Amino acid sequence: MSRQMHLGLFLLGTGSHVAGWRMPGAIDSFQDIDAMIRVAQIAERGLLDMIFMGDNLYGDPAAHPSYTVRFEPLTLLSALAMHTRHIGLGATVSTTYSDPFTTARAFASLDHISKGRAAWNAVTGSSPQAAPNFGRLHPNHAERYAIAGEFVDVVKGLWDGWADDAIEADRATGRYIDPAKVRSLDHEGTHFSVKGPLNIGRAPQGHPVILQAGGSEPGQALAARTADVVFSVVQDLAEAKAQYEALKARLPALGRRPEEVTVLPGVMPVVGRTSEEAFAKLAQLMGFVDATNALALLSDRFGTDMSAYDLDGPVPDLPIPDTYHSFARVMLNKARREGMRLRDAYNLMAAARGHWVLCGSAEEVADTLEEWFRGGAADGFNIMPSHLAEGLEDFVELVVPILQRRGLFRTAYAGTTLRENLGLARPPRREA
Amino acid sequence: MSRQMHLGLFLLGTGSHVAGWRMPGAIDSFQDIDAMIRVAQIAERGLLDMIFMGDNLYGDPAAHPSYTVRFEPLTLLSALAMHTRHIGLGATVSTTYSDPFTTARAFASLDHISKGRAAWNAVTGSSPQAAPNFGRLHPNHAERYAIAGEFVDVVKGLWDGWADDAIEADRATGRYIDPAKVRSLDHEGTHFSVKGPLNIGRAPQGHPVILQAGGSEPGQALAARTADVVFSVVQDLAEAKAQYEALKARLPALGRRPEEVTVLPGVMPVVGRTSEEAFAKLAQLMGFVDATNALALLSDRFGTDMSAYDLDGPVPDLPIPDTYHSFARVMLNKARREGMRLRDAYNLMAAARGHWVLCGSAEEVADTLEEWFRGGAADGFNIMPSHLAEGLEDFVELVVPILQRRGLFRTAYAGTTLRENLGLARPPRREA
């Protein structure tokens, strides 16, 4: 079988478009369990590899209205596991504002509950707004990544504490656990001291899948060393290809093969039966954008208050900020390349929060995805519907069948775990 | 309608009896999602108020074999919410090893997911064995309760950050949130600094139900001030009555009515169609007890290595330890009162981990529960099956119908939320 795409559903708010919830018939709540169940089932009908739930750790009603109120990801995905059978379930948990024992345990639990479908999106937490909710100061970029590297290693070490066959539950002898098959971790590091073992047996996947999205140099280094799947922020084929190649090129020196890391650029497909229908839908979406929200989002992404700048002037030459590094870099590069006005950047941010917007007929969208996939820019895509459920349904009903006809996407789930569907090996238990 | 009992299912390991998993046909895994779904559905069939899931934060294969491996409670209960419609879902989360923002958020999330059935069992974490998993020293008893008091207040404050109607999602105006109906908490205390607001809207119950089980003086003081439901450790009617009265007597000074706190002593019913059948079952259970496990448990509860003592000698006069305070106190009192040998204490600990064991025919069990309930020792009971599912099924099928015939227990769920089924008011949003 030739190489096939992997597809994720990025679940964030009422959709990735900042005002998508205003579309007629759109889901207008990100804390409605019945709506989330419906979305998960559509994604599974489309045979997507996984649902990937973004997160943040603060409530700012001014910044991102439709995803200020949200479920906590692990509780939501655990509930969705009960309404799906195949699709992977990826939750974002911050390495800056959680702890390795709790995190390792929760993902092992989700992996048992979902019978091998859990994934952890390990983020360092871009936003300093989380810090005061935890009585903390937000560590700087370098420190966050130093913490994250140790955090991920500890989590993996905890996941290896129990052998697959440590639990005997032998009624005749009364022996429940073989103590020789359980070990503590006894980690003493720079940032963490964690004894272990966990209080849950080895996960069905061995290790739940690890997702990462950091685009900075330390982010890429961490992903190359520890991630199974990387979500990337892209706006341009050449740039995506360069980024893809750079990440894959890091792997051999780390003892990993290129196919051990699946790279999925984020894309907001706006799909119509015809190109005109798609562009009309995008225009309708953009008509709902509120200037205040869009400017707040742009300021947030650029790490600079943009309200003082002329919307019809050029995008100013700003430094790449410490937070939202990838979004700012990709957008500022694009602006420089294309001579964008600030208004264009603002519209693009409003459309998909800085992610790539791909608008066209289903055939055109499939053509571009194929071009990127075959052209060495992607192993698949992280689909970011503009609004729900329509944005997802359009993709599943119109684009997926074309990809399937072209032999680019599965026609049935092949495995029972997320690792199997991603074509990733089950990690063996590391020796102590 | 006359006063009725409230009944909880205490879900811990493969059952509360230390070796219950060895019974023929018993569930022998506490990390089997299908088994847990079956148990939850039996409890709901029995119209129980809630499932209450114990927890710990360390894996010690030697101490408690059948509950060393377990689900993380919030992920499990979120999954169980999808397979039940009425029963409350209570998860244990430690105030010593979690943080208020994460905790407030997770329970609000579970409350939304379950449509108003979440409960938080706030524990200070009795066991010092958790500390090294978090790179911490275990705070002493007084400090743990000082932390817990502030923690619970912060969580309640965060739950009040959003008004019920803060989310407008007005498609016409584009206004998603009414910012006047959201406020930060700006808590600056001795142990926590938490800004808020949460990133989730107000919970369906206003506040998820708060459970507590602390039996020490600071534990009782905290429960009287903040809990909706109190689980107690009892071995004797007179003692239970004194404890019940003492707790209720604290309430008026705190501006609370006695019926605002539901007191549920823990009990392990071993039920048969006849008394003989019940005692035969108990004997069968006790036959599975392994001396090593039982002594480890006794040592853990008493905070003293008991292996040096003569099993056929008297229970020694030990000081009440800082950890597992209630278990040790109740058991040592009982031993003194009844002149128990160490072997008796050990058997009682093995049977129900120090909780009350009530063995008899269904009529006898119902008689005793009624006596305690009418006699001012309980508002209901926290049922701790010896093993699953049989221990629970016996209670649901044999005892519940008797309680119903006597008008002591509901014949249908009255409300849609846990608060409604417990007869507790929905807390109004406190003014800033």
UniProtKB/TrEMBL annotation, chains A, B:
<comment type="similarity">
    <text>Belongs to the NtaA/SnaA/DszA monooxygenase family.</text>
</comment>
<dbReference type="Pfam" id="PF00296">
    <property type="entry name" value="Bac_luciferase"/>
</dbReference>
<feature type="binding site">
    <location>
        <position position="216"/>
    </location>
    <ligand>
        <name>FMN</name>
    </ligand>
</feature>
<keyword id="KW-0560">Oxidoreductase</keyword>
<dbReference type="InterPro" id="IPR016215">
    <property type="entry name" value="NTA_MOA"/>
</dbReference>
<feature type="binding site">
    <location>
        <position position="92"/>
    </location>
    <ligand>
        <name>FMN</name>
    </ligand>
</feature>
<feature type="domain" description="Luciferase-like">
    <location>
        <begin position="17"/>
        <end position="377"/>
    </location>
</feature>
<keyword id="KW-0288">FMN</keyword>
<dbReference type="InterPro" id="IPR036661">
    <property type="entry name" value="Luciferase-like_sf"/>
</dbReference>
<feature type="binding site">
    <location>
        <position position="55"/>
    </location>
    <ligand>
        <name>FMN</name>
    </ligand>
</feature>
<dbReference type="InterPro" id="IPR011251">
    <property type="entry name" value="Luciferase-like_dom"/>
</dbReference>
<feature type="binding site">
    <location>
        <position position="145"/>
    </location>
    <ligand>
        <name>FMN</name>
    </ligand>
</feature>
<dbReference type="GO" id="GO:0004497">
    <property type="term" value="F:monooxygenase activity"/>
</dbReference>
<keyword id="KW-0503">Monooxygenase</keyword>
<feature type="binding site">
    <location>
        <position position="141"/>
    </location>
    <ligand>
        <name>FMN</name>
    </ligand>
</feature>
<keyword id="KW-0285">Flavoprotein</keyword>
<dbReference type="InterPro" id="IPR051260">
    <property type="entry name" value="Diverse_substr_monoxygenases"/>
</dbReference>
<dbReference type="GO" id="GO:0016705">
    <property type="term" value="F:oxidoreductase activity, acting on paired donors, with incorporation or reduction of molecular oxygen"/>
</dbReference>
<protein>
    <submittedName>
        <fullName>FMN-dependent oxidoreductase, nitrilotriacetate monooxygenase family</fullName>
    </submittedName>
</protein>
